[in-house]
Design brief:
This protein has helices at 8-26, 41-52, 64-71, 87-99, 113-121, 161-177, 199-212, 227-231, 233-238, 257-270, 295-314; strands at residues 31-36, 56-62, 80-83, 105-108, 134-140, 148-151, 184-188, 220-225, 251-253, 274-280, 286-287. It has 321 residues and is of the alpha/beta class. An 11-stranded mixed β-sheet has the order 3-2-1-4-11-10-5-6-9-7-8, sandwiched between helices. The chain is globular, with a radius of gyration of 20 Å.
């Protein structure tokens, strides 16, 4: 039966981009995901629902009694459970599954982010590569035609120019995994002109020149750009900015974690946007969701990881440290 209530139509429009990502991921092979310490209803439920939708093949890593309690009576007999003593042990064993080739991604359960990332960045037995780790929010913003990538808003606090190069490249690789044909990267600052008193504008100019010289590949870059003229054609026209990026950016690279975090949360709480989260730059994608995330956001994060891992299998792996 077709429903046409006025309440449901906006909901469909709001989540349309995430639904497209989930549908695209369902067409790919299931991704084996080591779920570290899924010992509460939210984290375990997200992994199980992603499995039901054909997005991932979860491997549950943690204390078996606590996982069973979080399942609330659901039969877990068909799923692989790797016993771990506690949250730190869960993180270490989840990383070990990746190193053994038994998992192609990590997913954060009910443990602190620092616990999981500590196991990832360990020099011995971790998942480090020559690429800097960075976080991408994949935003489904109502009224915006395509998913919007914001980086970095969760890992790198005050990145250097060299670190920003990796942050940009990680985001470009992610956008390509969605099938974005032309990746347009805006290096965002408070203004669209280079001002030596505002270091982020100088970094923006340097990053654009790095792209010109082939140090960053796979995208068109422009910056510095203020947020308005990065995403709004009218604002770019008023400022007489002519570029392939201004007004049409699908990747926003922010100056630092504070700016990125406030931008992403402003969109979430003031514009009803959804924010899926993924960490890139390790040997495998890391699904880094919050216990406060909505159901669809968690599923979209799994879809993003599946799409990225599928694209990465077709490309060259990142060089090891």
């Amino acid at each position: 039966m077709v429903r046409s209530t006025t309440q449901e139509a906006p909901a469909r429009r709001r989540h349309e981009k995430y639904e497209r990502l989930i549908a695209a991921a369902q067409a790919r092979p299931r991704l084996a995901v080591a779920v570290a310490h899924p010992c509460d209803e939210a984290s375990l439920g997200a992994a199980l629902e992603a499995a039901d939708l054909g997005l991932i093949e979860p491997i549950l890593v943690g204390p078996r009694p606590r996982i069973a309690a979080a399942a609330g009576g659901r039969d877990l007999g068909a799923l692989r459970i790797v016993e771990a003593a506690h949250s730190h042990d869960s993180a270490a064993r989840a990383v070990a599954l990746v190193n053994a080739g038994e998992a192609g991604a990590l997913m954060k359960g009910s443990l602190h982010t620092d616990e999981l990332m500590g196991a990832v960045v360990r020099r011995e037995g971790g998942l480090r590569t020559a690429r800097r780790l960075s976080h991408c929010f994949v935003m489904d913003v109502p009224g915006h035609d395509d998913p919007l990538i914001i980086t970095d808003a969760a890992i790198n606090i005050a990145p250097t120019l060299e670190e920003k190069r990796d942050i940009v490249q990680n985001a470009i690789d992610l956008a390509h995994s969605f099938g974005v044909e032309v990746v347009r990267v805006a290096i965002v600052s408070a203004m669209e002109t280079v001002n030596p008193k505002v270091p982020s504008t100088v970094d923006a100019a340097a990053l654009c020149k790095m792209a010109d010289r082939g140090q960053i590949t796979g995208a068109v870059l422009d910056g510095p750009l203020a947020l308005d003229n990065a995403i709004d054609l009218g604002a770019a026209a008023i400022k007489k900015i002519r570029s392939a990026v201004a007004g049409r950016a699908n990747v926003l690279v922010v100056p630092d974690l504070e700016a990125g975090n406030m931008l992403a949360k402003s969109l979430t709480f003031l514009a009803d946007a959804d924010a899926a989260g993924i960490v890139l730059g390790a040997r495998v994608p890391i699904i880094l969701t919050s216990r406060a995330d909505a159901r669809l956001t968690r599923l979209a994060s799994c879809a993003v990881a599946t799409l990225f891992a599928s694209g990465r299998r077709a490309a060259s792996p990142l060089p090891e440290v």
